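Assess this:
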Amino acid sequence: MANTTTTIKIPASPDQVWQLIGGFNSLPNWLPYIPSSKLSQGARVRHLANPDGDTIVERLEVFNNKERYYTYSIMEAPFPITDYLSTIHVREIADDSKTSLVEWSGSFTPVGVSDEEAINLFHGIYAEGLKALKQAFPK
């Protein structure tokens, strides 16, 4: 099992950031890599499209609105991994109510590629995604 975690500070309160990213169907609102998302199965499964036309199907595993995080798994995707589980978490920063720390982490089992290649793939997706999120909150 391989894993990676990426964090970024966002110049907005945790509630503001969570309002944008906390919906399981909200990826197209802040992640350029995902132009569309459709929910099914009582809003617990999302069908995502990427710019290459590939479909990614993910299942919501845990949702905690109070602590501002959700965990999801990949059911179907063009990635060389299995057993994927990821969490997006918006955290408070002590003594700074106007800044958030957003953490995107994942664990997975590489298939046909090295741990390093799979880690680099998802680390890149997370890092680019969080940079795009930060741009939604200009200072």
Remarks:
- The two ends are 38 Å apart (CA to CA).
